[in-house]
């Protein structure tokens, strides 16, 4: 969703990391969390038949995940 990639592909390219970094650094922490919430909804809707329990589980910690993703992006702590 951030980068167009099959889930079976396990590694990101340098270009894909740059796209993720731009995504994570664009906007506020709250805006990033909201984008991640929407991505999670789409994932669960399309792949897991709108499983509400799974959605709640995955979204429970998105505030912390958004901050961690932003910190990794700010410090360029991605591994190729």
User: What percentage of amino acids are in beta strands?
Assistant: under 5%
- In percent, how helical is the residue content? 55-70%
The shape, in one word, is globular
Distance between the termini: 19 Å
Average pLDDT over all residues: 88
- Class derived from helix and strand content: mainly alpha
Tally of DSSP helical segments: 4
Number of strands: 0
Integer-rounded radius of gyration: 13 Å
Which stretches are low in confidence, meaning pLDDT under 50 for 5 or more residues running?
none
Quaternary assembly:
single chain
Question: What's the order of the H and E elements?
Answer: HHHH
Major pleated sheet: none
Task: Give a short summary of the structure.
This protein is mainly alpha-helical. Helices cover 65% and strands 0% of the residues. It starts with 13 loop residues before the first helix and ends in a 6-residue tail after the last helix.
Structure characterization notes:
The chain is mostly helical and 80 residues long. Helices cover 65% and strands 0% of the residues. The protein has helices at residues 14-25, 29-47, 52-59, 62-74. Helix 2 crosses helix 4. It starts with 13 loop residues before the first helix and ends in a 6-residue tail after the last helix. The mean pLDDT is 88.
């Amino acid at each position: 969703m951030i980068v167009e990639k099959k889930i079976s592909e396990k590694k990101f390219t340098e270009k894909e990391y740059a796209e993720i970094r731009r995504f994570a650094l664009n906007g506020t922490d709250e805006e990033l969390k909201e984008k991640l919430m929407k991505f999670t909804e789409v994932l669960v809707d399309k792949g897991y038949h709108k499983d509400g329990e799974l959605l709640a589980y995955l979204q429970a910690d998105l505030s912390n995940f958004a901050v961690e993703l932003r910190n990794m992006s700010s410090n360029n702590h991605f591994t190729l």
